[in-house]
What we know:
The structure holds two protein chains of two kinds. Chain A folds into two domains: 11-86; 92-164, no CATH class. Chain A is elongated, with a radius of gyration of 19 Å. Chain A has three helices and twelve strands. Chain A is of the alpha+beta class. By secondary structure, chain B is an alpha+beta fold. In chain B, the strands form four sheets. In chain B, strands 13-14-15-10-16-17 form a six-stranded mixed sheet, sandwiched between helices. Chain B starts with 7 loop residues before the first helix and ends with a helix. Chain B has helices at 8-17, 103-117, 155-165, 170-201, 217-263, 266-271, 274-316, 318-338, 340-365, 367-372, 376-428, 434-476, 536-543, 566-571, 587-592, 600-609, 613-616, 636-650, 666-680, 715-721, 724-760; strands at 25-31, 37-45, 48-55, 58-66, 72-77, 81-88, 91-99, 497-504, 513-520, 525-529, 551-556, 559-560, 573-576, 654-658, 684-688, 700-705, 708-713. Chain B has 21 helices and 17 strands. Helices cover 55% and strands 15% of the residues of chain B. The chains are: A alpha+beta, B alpha+beta. The interface between A and B is large, with 44 and 50 residues.
Amino acid sequence: MAMNILDAGTITFERTPTGVLNALYRKTERHENVRCAPLFPHSPDAGYISILIKKEKEYIELGIVRDLNVFSADQRRLIEDDMAFRYFVPEITDITKINSKHGMDEWAIQTDRGGRTIQVRDRKENVVLTDKGAIFVTDSDACRYRISDPRRLPPRAQDLLEKQMV
Amino acid sequence: MKNDDLPSPIQQLLEREFPAIKPAIAISSDINAEGRFGEEWLVVISDALLTITLDNGNAVIRTRMVIGDIDTIEAVNLVGRGVIEAGTKTGISRLLSYSSARSQKFFEAAEKIRALKEGKPIDNGGKPEDHEKKCDVCGKPVPPDLNRCPRCVHKGKTFLRIMDFSRPYAGLLLLIFLFMILSTVCGLGIPWLSKLFIDYILKPDAVTGVFEYAQWLPIAVIAMLVAYTAQLFLGGVQERFSGALGYRTVYDVRAAIYEKLQELSLSFFDKHQTGGLLARVNQDTGELQRFIVDFFPLSLESLFLLIGVGIFLFILSWQLTLFILVPVVATVWFLKRIFPRVWNYFHRYYHRRSRLSALVNDAISGIRVVKAFGQEKLEVSKFDKRSADYRDSGIDLVKQWSVYHPILHFFIMSGTIIVWAVGGHLVIGHKMTIGSIVAYSGYLAMFYRPVMTLTRLIEMVTNSLSAAERVFDVIDTEPQVKDDEHAVEMPDIKGAIEFRGVTFGYAAFKPVIKELTFSVNACEKVGLVGKSGAGKSTIINLICRLYDVDRGEILVDGVDIRKIRHADVRRQIGVVLQDTFLFNGSIYENIAYARPDATRDQIIEASIAANAHEFIVQKSDGYDTDVGERGNRLSGGEKQRIAIARAILRDPAVLILDEATSSVDTHTEKKIQDALDTLTRNRTTIAIAHRLSTLRSYNRLLLIDDGALVEQGTHEELMVKKGKFYELVTMQQEMSAIIGASAEEQKNHGHEHSGRWHHHV
Lengths: 166, 761
C-alpha cells in the first residue's frame, strides 16, 4: 500500500474554540479531533507527520504530511501546535543540582516548560544518549525529557550530566 | 481516588459559588493551560464540572460544564502527558492536561465522573494507589517503585543494616579490628625507631667520639625487623579476614535478593528492566562486597593511622605541625574542590569506552545481518566515530591528569619542604633533633595516605551505600500478588473458571481487560480468539494469577482466586507458550523442571506422549543432550514438544496453550497437534491460536475485542452467526488463498526459470 501524501490541496485544518483540531479531507470528509503524530520526533527537521483519525475505538492513519512547508503559515502552525500538545517531551535547558540518594538521582532542572525536580532511577536505562547526540532522560513517573544538544547546557550542568552518563 | 487538598483561594471560590457543598472530585494537574509546569484544578461539585486555574494567587474558573450535558468523558493518553476530553452536543472540549505522573489519578477521575453521570455508586476499590504513597517523614510523594522515601533514608542506617548482615560473623569482625590496630601500631613504631637510631645509637658522644649506646644496635635492628614483619603479617591476616567476612556477608545478601526476586510478582518485573535487575544482583552486591572487603577496613585503617600519626607529629614537634597544617589543609581543599574535575574526565572516558564496546558487541552479534545487507562500510564508519570519541576523551583525560596531578603532588611535596625549612631552623636552634626531623618526615609521608584515602573514600563509600540501598530496596519489596491471610488450600482443583466483571491493566489507567465476564466449565476446551492486542494473553496471565485484577473477580471452582493458596493455583495450571523457554541444561532436566521428583520412566512416558521421544532418540546424547542457552541448539518444533512433555508431566487440572503450534512447519504442527490432543484430554483447556482452524474441535470459542467479550459459541455457531468471528475466518481464508496462489506462482515461475536454464545448458 502506497503512502497517502497529504498537502494543502487535500486537507485543511481548523481548531475549535475548545482546543480540538478538526480536519476537512478532500473538501468532503470532515473529521473531528484528529491527531498529528510526528513520525520522526527525534529529528529536528519538520515533516513526515502522520494524520490520524478516529474510527470506532481506534485511531487509523488518514495520510502523511511529508513536507510542512507546502502548507500556509496558519495551517502549519495548527499542525505544529497539535504536535507540541500531543508530544510532551520538555527540553532541559539547565541542570542546577543532582543529588544521589537511595540509588536514585534527584535532578533539579529547568526546561522550556518551566522548572521541576525529577527522580531518575537506574541511569543506565534512563539517561540515554542517542546516535544523533541528543540525550533522553526518563524519570520515575515515566515522563521523558530531552537534551537536544548537551553542549548547549551551561558548563556546570554539562559536568553534572557527564557524571550521569554510564 | 483521594481528593487533593484544595488551595485556599479555590476553597473560598467554591464556598462562594457552592455554599455548604463539598466537591465530589478535586484533583490538581501539574501542567497549566499554557502547557507549562504549573497547577490547574479539575473539580466536580454539585452538578458542575469545573476547571480552575490560579492566576496570581486568585482562583479563576476556566471551564464550567453541567455534568448532565456531558455525553462522553475520557482521560486520553498522549506522549508524556494526558488530557481530559469531554464530548457534548456541540463537540469535544479539551478540559485540562497533565503529565504522565498524574495519569492514573485523572483516569480514575474520568471513571468517577462517568459513574456520577450515570448515577452509579463510585467504586474506589481496586489496586492500591501506590502513586499516592507519601513519605511519613517529609510528606513528599514516594516514587511508585520504591518502598521508602529516597530523601529520608539515612546512610547510617544503611551502614548498620549491612553490619546486621555481618552479625553472624561478629567474632571475625572483632579479630579484624584487633589485627588492624596492632598492624597500625607496629607501622607507627618504625619512624620512631629511626629517630632512636639517629639520635642515640648512631650518635657519638660530642667530646669522646664514643658511641655510648652501640650495644643497643642489634636490639634496635631486631625491633625494626619485628615491627616491619609484624605490620606485614598482621596486615595480611587482617586482609584475609576482611575478605572472608566480605564474601560471606555478600553471599548472604545475594541469596536474600535472589530469593526475593523469585518471590516477587510479575508486576515488579514489568516495572524493572532485566538489565537493571541483573545489575542489582551482580554489580550492586559486588559493590557491597568492595565496601566490606576494601572500603570499610581501609576507612578504619586510615582513621587509626590519621589519629596515630597526628599524635606522633604533635609529640615530635607541635610548632612544626602547625606549619604542616597549611599544606595539609590546602591538599584537602584541592582534593575536595579542584581534583574532582578530573573525575568528570574519567566519567566521560569510561562512558565513551562502554559506548564503543556496546557498538562492537552489537555489530558482532548481528554480523550476519551486516553481511547480508552489505553494510560493512557503514559499521566501520560508525565504529570510527565512536572510537574517535573514545580517543579524544582519553587525550582530554591525560591532558587534565597531567595538569592536576602534579599540582596535587606539589601540595604534598611542599609539606616535606616545610619540614626541612622549619624543622632545619628548629634543629639549628637546638629545639629539635635530626632524628626527630627524619622521624617527622617518615610520619608525614604516612599522614598524606589516609588524608587522600579518606577524601576519596567518602565518594566511594557513598556509592557503595547507594548500591546497598538499591539491594535492600529489592529485599524489602512486598510481592503484589501474595497469599491472602485466610487463603484456603485447594490441592485438587477441578478446573471450572469464571471471570466476573474483571477489569485489569498493567498500568491501571490503561485497562486491557474491561468488565469481562465469562465462565469455563471443568474439563471444557475453550479457545480465545481475537486480534493481536485484544487482551487474550492478559486473560491467561490473570488465570495463572501472575497479576491480580483491578476490579471484579476470577473464581476457580467457585472460589475467588485471591483466596486460594497461591502455590495450589500455580501447581495445577500447566502452560505451553509460543516462545518456549528452555534453561541451559539437558533435555531431561528441562522436562523434569515440571516435577523434579519424577522418575525416568515418567519422563520418558511424558516425552512419548508429547511426540518428543522420537527426536530425542535420534540425538547422540539422548535425554542428556545439552539444549544450549535458552534451548537454541534445538529447533522450534523440538522445543515446543519438550514444553508439551513438561506440561504432560505436570498433569495440571487447567491447561493453557498460548499459540502453541505457531511458528512451526505443517509436518511438525501435525505432530504437536497430536501431542496436544493427548494432553488436553480430561482437563480444562484454554487455548489461544491465530490459526482459527486449529480450534475447530473446541467446545466453545470466545471472541475477545478490546478487552471485552464480543461473541461466543462453537466454531459452527459463530460461522452461522456471520459476525466478527466470521469476518476473521473469512479474512484468514482469503489471506491463505493469496499466500497459496503466490507460492504456486513462485513455484511455476521457478520451474520456468529452471527449465529455461536447463534448456540453455
